[in-house]
Every structure is written in C-alpha cells, then in structure tokens.
Amino acid sequence: MTLRVGVLIYDGCVQFEVVLAAFFVQQKGKVETYGIEMRDHRSAEGFRLQPDHPLSELDPDALDAFIVPGGQPDAILDNAVLAEKLRELNARGKLIAAICGAPVHLSRAGVLEGRSFTSSIYHERPGDFVSGTYVDRDVVEDGNIVTAWPNAFVDFAIVLADRLGLFQDREDREETVRVFREFKRG
User: Fold this and answer.
1) How does the average pLDDT of the chain come out, rounded?
2) Segments making up each domain of the chain, as ranges
C-alpha cells in the first residue's frame, strides 16, 4: 500500500513550512492536498494552490498522516469540519503534524488534551489555546502529534520522515541532515 499524507491548504497558509516534508513524502508515497473549500487558495508566499479534495471528504483511514501548515489562524479558526477531521484522525492514532500557528487548531479541536505542544503564536495568543501544555522547544513530539516552530521546518520534516519510515537507513538519514539542516553537499 502506498504511503498517503494529506496537507491542508487555505488562504494565507505558509507553504514553505511544509514543502520539505512533502518532498520527503513524495520520494516514497503520495501527498494529497485538502481544502476547506474547493477553490483556488493563495499561500502566504503568493502561490496559487488548488486542493485535490474537499476537507469534508477526508477519510482518516485512507491517510497515514495529516499536516497543517501555519499561517494566519483566524482564516480557519474554529472551522467545524477541520475540528471534526482532526478528532477523527486522532481517534485512529494517525500522525498529525502542525507547524507555526497551526497547533491552535489542534488545541481547539481537543486533540492536544493531556499532551505537550509548541507553537510560535502561543505567547501572543495564549487564550486561543484551550487544551494541551505549551513547551518552549522548536519541535515537540507527543504520541501521534508533532508540533513545531516555523524556524524548525527542516527538523519538522526530518521528524516526520523518521515517523513515516521514509529513510532507507541510518546513512540516508544522516545524508539528509547534512544536506538540508547543515547545508553541506551530499
């Protein structure tokens, strides 16, 4: 069975935060994008993004992981469909990854209850986080949840690749770290 990872897209999502993780997935699996609405969206970087599927049709059993990029959270804050899908993914133990401001959506959906997380917007918007325990680290793993600050997008991608079994072996992982984190030639 092919590895399948869903990525949420929405107006103002920060594409660069998840591009490297998606690149790693594409080496051995398939990335599918989901939109709250089936229309063109504009990323924070100005790219036009077209979702493959409506979020309402996401089948948690058909995915191995789901990634929520950061961006301005107000664009999708408290979206009922997003919250429902996050709870369904969590109930099935699927890997859920959120970066930058995106952990707020996990918190408001209740999937961070009893868990640790990190987020770059926690200090400016602590009242928006209704569940979970904030930890001041670049990347936090707690069970099936991975959260990260935006500056840690490379480590975020490497953690996801580790969790999804994308590296061939230790040497493959070390080369990836050298190239993408340390900016050295392979």
Assistant:
1) 97
2) 3-181
Q: Which residues contact 113 (CB under 8 A, 6 or more apart)?
A: 131, 132
Q: What whole-number distance in Å separates Cα of residue 40 and Cα of residue 69?
A: 17
SS3 173: helix
| Tens of pLDDT, residues 153-163 | 999 999 999 99
Q: Hey, what are 86's tokens?
A: 């996050």
Q: Residue 156 and residue 101: Cα distance in Å, rounded?
A: 14
This model's pTM is above 0.85? yes
CATH of domain 3-181: 3.40.50.880
For the record, the structure tokens of 38 come out as: 């089936």
Distance CA 71, CA 78 (A): 14
Number of CB atoms found within 10 A of residue 170's CB = 8
Token look-up 């970066």 returns 99
Q: For residues 182 and 17, give the distance between their C-alpha atoms in angstroms, rounded to a whole number.
A: 17
As given in the structure block, the two tokens for residue 16 are 């660069």
Q: At 33, give phi and psi (nearest 5°).
A: -100, 145
| Site of tokens 């990836």 | 176
